[in-house]
């Protein structure tokens, strides 16, 4: 973790210097590692990044253990993570009625103030009916629950029409909207409701660590135009690779 942060800070520093240069500079591994070692990253800041990731992604047991080991306090009650993960799991398993009930138990205002989220949960519920071959029930549900919302919102109507189109194909492998039946659609809906719950708890809906890694990639790409230096190509290992000269 500290190595990645050092890499990012070193890149920022070098980019400021190289912005004034006209030729592409070559930085040796020895010189680059010295730059990395000169960058100081507080352990407390790294711990906060880890805790933020664990809390946002819902790893409640790991967050509790990390709290005890590092002394880093989460910014929300860890007990709420269990409730949030129960909602997420219900959506991922296709139990939408249970998921909606659990969201309302947590905070009724979440769905009352977010019509798009409520529509997507109801849309996923329709998808599950279609998946289970309950054609008549699916049509009735679409007409009574989703059609009125589609009349009020054009984007909702378009999504409803795409979903109902699943009923026109016996073999969904040939259906142009067959991806709605993929597990990835459940995961997308689960991610949306997870983010909404986090927002209602005044917590960031996305963990900071992935954003930091995206920033590292962007910074390296920018510096590539000005210098050849040991860069991180595999984020999973964080290993430096010598520049091609």
UniProtKB/TrEMBL annotation:
It comes from the Eukaryota. Residues 80-137 form the CTLH domain. InterPro entries: CRA_dom, CTLH/CRA, CTLH_C, LisH, Ubq-SigPath_Reg. Pfam families: CTLH, LisH. This is CTLH domain-containing protein. It comes from Fraxinus pennsylvanica.
């Amino acid at each position: 973790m500290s190595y990645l942060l050092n890499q990012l800070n070193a890149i920022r520093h070098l980019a400021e210097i190289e912005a004034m240069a006209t030729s592409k500079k070559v930085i040796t591994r020895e010189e680059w590692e010295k730059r990395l070692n000169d960058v100081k990253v507080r352990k407390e800041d790294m711990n906060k990044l880890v805790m933020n990731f664990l809390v946002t992604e819902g790893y409640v047991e790991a967050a509790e253990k990390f709290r005890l080991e590092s002394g880093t306090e989460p910014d929300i009650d860890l007990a709420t993570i269990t409730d949030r993960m129960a909602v997420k799991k219900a959506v991922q398993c296709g139990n939408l009625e249970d998921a909606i009930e659990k969201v309302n138990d947590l905070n009724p205002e979440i769905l009352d103030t977010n019509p798009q989220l409520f529509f997507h949960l109801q849309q996923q519920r329709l998808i599950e009916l279609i998946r289970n071959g309950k054609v008549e029930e699916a049509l009735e549900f679409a007409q009574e629950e989703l059609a009125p919302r589609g009349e009020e919102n054009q984007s909702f109507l378009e999504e409803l029409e795409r979903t109902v189109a699943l009923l026109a194909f016996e073999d969904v492998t040939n259906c142009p909207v067959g991806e709605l039946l993929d597990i990835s659609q459940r995961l997308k809906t689960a991610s949306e409701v997870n983010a909404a719950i986090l927002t209602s708890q005044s917590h960031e809906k996305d963990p900071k660590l992935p954003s930091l890694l995206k920033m590292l990639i962007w910074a390296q790409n920018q510096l590539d135009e000005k210098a050849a230096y040991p860069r991180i190509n595999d984020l999973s290992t964080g290993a430096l690779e010598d520049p091609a000269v």
